[in-house]
Q: What sequence folds into this?
């Protein structure tokens, strides 16, 4: 589903990644681990085409980074869910509107949007917080809204960039359980983290270690 | 259709969501439009005033006394053939004496026992002919008529007017253009600040798969609404100022500002365009 063909990408003063060859299958649960600045986030950004390789190419289903036009990138991003350490929720609208935004951009009908948003919010355990503003929620709840926003469009892969970075251990554990459940429903999950304690919580997860822009344990 | 209404709604909501930045933007655009509005009226009225001064220019043609009425009539007809002449007023010796009495309060016959004032024609020229070259040509032609005694006109006045009118025109138009450009740049930058303050909305929309047009639309609607609202505010302020000026200060200033509905309509169109163009320029940076 996702393939990196000899990808190198450097930008600014950051190291980026070098000569990456990697393949991730549908329904896989993958941990990208490594210290800060190792290149984990770069790999994720290459997947949702926020960055483009200087060498090689990344192919996500039928989207090829070497051929894709900028007008096609939104259509790729509708297939890829993303969550971040800082949640990136819009504080000028409530939980419902934050989640529904993903569907409005994909031109869904109002009734379907409503149905899907309520379903996904119940799925992440936030059915009772629909009309709250993100500022009124705890860190764990905000991250679950971000997950709901990513999941509501039924992505083929969910990318999580340090998803537990701002959460306490108990909430982090709950979040990993949620990501496992999502994966069991068939969505591939890629978690970039330097928190190694999360890894044992997911059985059958694939571990990819990144160091100074290179994969240490190629599989 | 759902997306269309969503974007319209987003545009309107953006006005509230933009908070202080939006309010600041509206204040700046309003001030800019007020500046442009007053600048326009001042420039227009200055040019009208100069043209009014020019329109008061006339030529006086003195006719020899004792000219027979038939010749006077023929001369009048000849003057009527001049394309440059707009209006001909004949002042007989008697009328001139009456004018003298009205102006000086004394009868000319009491002073001199006879009327020394010759009959004359006062000629007004059409606007395109109110220049030194045309006037001199007309005067030369008139002087060739044997019944004409003397032709008088304010040559120095015309020379001065000619010299300074162009200068005044260039100065007024330049100041107005500079004022307008400064206002547009100010307004555009304030809209840019509003959009910058909400750049996280743009980033998030792009991350969840919004196309550039989808991201752009609400901001353009919001910018246009800001411009429209500012224009209405500016129109009210300008209208009230002119109302106050015309009704309470007219006796002191002697000036009456007259503006039509088209002026206010123009202001509304300009404000909306400033909002639309400003937001188009600002959002472009975030979508590259």
A:
């Amino acid at each position: 589903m996702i393939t990196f063909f000899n990808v190198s990408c450097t930008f600014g003063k950051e190291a980026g990644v070098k000569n990456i060859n990697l393949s991730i299958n549908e329904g896989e649960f993958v941990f990208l681990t490594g210290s800060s600045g190792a290149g984990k986030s770069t790999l994720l950004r290459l997947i949702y085409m926020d960055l483009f390789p200087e060498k090689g190419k990344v192919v996500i289903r039928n989207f090829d980074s070497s051929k894709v036009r900028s007008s096609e990138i939104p259509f790729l991003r509708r297939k890829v869910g993303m969550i971040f350490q800082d949640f990136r929720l819009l504080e000028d609208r409530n939980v419902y509107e934050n989640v529904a935004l993903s569907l409005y951009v994909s031109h869904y009908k109002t009734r379907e949007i409503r149905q899907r948003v309520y379903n996904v919010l119940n799925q992440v355990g936030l059915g009772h917080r629909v009309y709250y503003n993100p500022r009124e929620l705890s860190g764990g709840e905000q991250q679950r809204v971000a997950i709901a926003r990513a999941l509501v469009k039924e992505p083929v892969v969910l990318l999580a960039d340090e998803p537990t970075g701002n959460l306490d251990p108990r909430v982090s554990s709950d979040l990993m359980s949620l990501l496992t459940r999502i994966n069991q429903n068939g969505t591939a999950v890629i978690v970039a983290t330097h928190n190694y304690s999360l890894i044992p919580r997911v059985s059958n997860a694939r571990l990819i270690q990144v160091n100074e822009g290179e994969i240490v344990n190629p599989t | 259709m759902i997306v269309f209404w969503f974007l319209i709604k987003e545009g309107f909501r953006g006005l509230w969501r933009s908070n202080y930045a939006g309010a600041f933007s509206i204040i700046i655009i309003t001030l800019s439009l007020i500046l442009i509005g007053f600048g326009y009226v001042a420039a227009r009225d200055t040019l009208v005033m100069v043209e009014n001064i020019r329109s008061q220019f006339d030529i006086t043609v003195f006719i020899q006394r004792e000219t027979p009425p038939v010749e006077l009539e023929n001369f009048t007809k000849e003057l009527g053939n001049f394309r440059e002449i707009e209006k001909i007023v004949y002042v007989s010796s008697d009328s001139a004496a009456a004018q003298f009495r009205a102006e000086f309060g004394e009868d000319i016959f009491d002073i001199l026992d006879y009327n020394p004032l010759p009959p004359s024609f006062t000629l007004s020229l059409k606007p395109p002919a109110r220049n030194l070259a045309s006037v001199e040509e007309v005067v030369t032609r008139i002087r060739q008529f044997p019944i004409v005694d003397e032709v008088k006109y304010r040559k120095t006045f015309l020379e001065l007017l000619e010299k300074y009118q162009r200068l005044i025109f260039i100065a007024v138009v330049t100041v107005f253009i500079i004022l307008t450009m400064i206002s547009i740049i100010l307004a555009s930058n304030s809209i840019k600040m509003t959009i910058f303050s909400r750049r996280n909305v743009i980033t998030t929309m792009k991350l969840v798969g919004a196309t550039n047009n989808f991201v752009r639309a609400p901001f353009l609607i919001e910018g246009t609404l800001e411009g429209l609202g500012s224009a209405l505010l500016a129109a009210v302020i300008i209208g009230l100022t002119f109302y106050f000026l015309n009704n309470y200060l007219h006796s002191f200033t002697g000036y009456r500002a007259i503006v039509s509905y088209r002026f206010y309509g123009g202001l509304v169109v300009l404000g909306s365009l400033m909002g639309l163009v400003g937001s188009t320029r600002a959002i472009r940076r975030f979508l590259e």
In short: The longest helix of chain A spans residues 169-184. The helical segments of chain A are 40-47, 73-77, 95-104, 110-123, 139-151, 169-184. The interface with chain B takes residues 48, 71, 74-78, 82, 88-90, 92-93, 101-102, 104-110, 149, 153 of chain A (CB under 8 Å).
